[in-house]
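Name: Glycogen phosphorylase
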Amino acid sequence: MESYYDKINKTIKTEDIEDVSEFYEAINRKNLTKKLSDDRPYVYFTMEVYDKGNGIKGGGGLGVLAADTRRVAETLEIPFICVTPFYRSEIHQSIVALDQRETIINVRPEDYGFEYLDDVEIFNRDMPPARLNIFQKILGSTRFLTMGESNFGELYAGDGSGDHRLYQEVSLGFGGYKALKMIGKKPSVIQLNETATIFAAVARLDELVKNGMNLYEAIVYVRKHTLYTNHTLVQAAESEFSYEQFTKIVFPNIESSALIRWISGLFRNDRLKLSTLTIELAEAKNGVSRLHARVADYRDINGDKVKFRAVTNGIDLKTWILPDILGLYLEKEIIDKFGLPTDNFKENIDKLDIEKIKELKKKGRIELNKVLKKRKNQYGKSVQIPENALVFDFKRRFVDYKRPWMPFEDTEKLRKILRDNNAYYILAGKVHQGDSRMRATLNSVLSKIESDDFLRERVHFIQDYDEELGRALAVGSDIAINVPIVGLEACGTSFMKDLGNLKLLISTADGGAADISPTSALEVSGINYEQELNAIYKQMEKACYIYNNDTLLQKQIKNQLVDYLPIVSGARMMKDYLQLIFGQK
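Structure predicted for Glycogen phosphorylase:
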C-alpha cells in the first residue's frame, strides 16, 4: 500500500527544487554562502523532537515544530543539524475507566537507522563520568545528532528544577557540543530552543576561552552567533537552580575558571534562572508569534525588559497538508516549489471553486477514517465517521490554558448543535504526567459524555494522541476548536494545519492566530468567561450554517487562506530566521 510519504514525494519531487539558489535570492542572500556551509551549518538545539518516523517521539508542540524545522531545511537544502537527546523511554496514553493511564516502552536509536559514532563524557562532582552514546542520522543536507544513555530517562523526567533535569540539560548542551566537534562541524549559528538548551552556548564560550580568547571578547562572539527562541511567555515559569546544583552538575564541565566566576556572578539569592543566562549569551531573541513577542515578560540581569523580535512558527506543508490539496496549491500557483506563497497567491486563491474544495475534503475524510479504524476511543472501540457528517475536533495537549473542557460546560447546547447538524466531536490529547488537575478535568469531560446517550455515540476521545492522529484529524475533520486563554498561547501550530487543509477555524485571537487582526477565523471573544463560553456555541452553530451553504463556505475558506497562508508556510519561517540571524533586510 502506498504510504502518505510516498504520496508527498510524488507531489514535490526532489528535481523540482534542485535550484535552491532561487530561494536564497528571495531573501536577498548576498554573502550567506560564506557564513553557512556544510562545515559551518545552522545548528538547532532542542530538548525534544517529535518525529516518530525517525524514531524520536517528543511530548508536544515544541517537538513537532523542531521536526518541521528540520524537514523544511532539508527541502531547502540548508546545511542544518538538529541536536537533541534520544530518549529511550516513550510514554503512551490509554484510557481505563475514563481515567488516563501511562505506559512506558523502550526504544533504541539503532532500530530507526541511527549510526553510532562514539561516546562523550559528562562530569558530575564526586561521581564517575557519565558516558553519553552519540548517534547520528543524515537526511539530505540535514542530520540528527543525538545523545543519551540507558538511565537518561524520559522527556521532562522529574522536577523542572531538580538534579536529573539539570543533568539532561547539561548533557544536551555540553554533550551535544562535543558531538559537533566529533563530526568536525563548527556552528555558523546556534539556535537555542528554550532556555534548557543554554549549555550549548556555554560550551562554545568555554572552548573559545580555552583556545586563548579573552572572556569578554568570547562573550561578544557567542552573542553574535546565538539565537534564543522563546516559547514560554513568563520568566517566572522558567526553571531555576541553586548554586550548589551548578557546582555539582554544571561547573565540572567547564574548564575556564574565569567563565565559572562570571556565571557565579549571575546568581541572585543563591538561585539562577536559565533565562537570565540565556539572555546574557544571545543577542538575537525571538518570540514565536507577533503577540508573543509583544507580551513575553523577561528581564535581563539589570532588570531591564528584554525585547523580542517576532518569527511566527510555520509548518512543513509536505508533512501536514493532504497531498491532493498541496498539489492543488502548486498547480494553481498559490505556493511555489519552495512552499512560499507566490506573488499573486491571493488572486489564485480566489479562483478556487467549491466543488473542488468539497471533493478534496471527501478525500481527507477517507484518510481520517483509515487512521480511526486502527485507533480506540475512550471505550476501547474503533470509530468510523459517515461521509456526510460534520466533524468538530480538539487535538492538542490537555493543559489548563488550552481549555479543552469549554464545549462541555453546557451539554444540552452541545447535544443540540451535534444533533441538528448531523455532527460529531472528536477529542485527542494527553495530560502531562503529574498534572492531577487536568487529569481530573479529562475524567470529568469523559464522565459527562458517558452520562448522555446521544453524546456517547457522537463524542469520541481517541487514545494515544500522536503525529499520525494529529495529521488525520487535520485533513479529515471539518471544524477545528482552538480556544486558549488570550495571552497564554505562545504560537500553536495545530490551527495552521487545519487552515491549510481547508477547514473552518473557531479560535480565540491568541498565539499565531492573532497575527491577523481582525481574524478571518470564527473568533471566540468576550470580556469574561461566560461571554467566551456563549461565543463558542454561537460560532459552532455559525460554522455548521456556513458548511451547509456552498457560497458561504467557499468565501470563508478563501478568506482564511488569503490571510493565513503566509503564516502557515514553514519556508516563510525559515526565510524569516535566516534574515534575522544573518542581518538581511
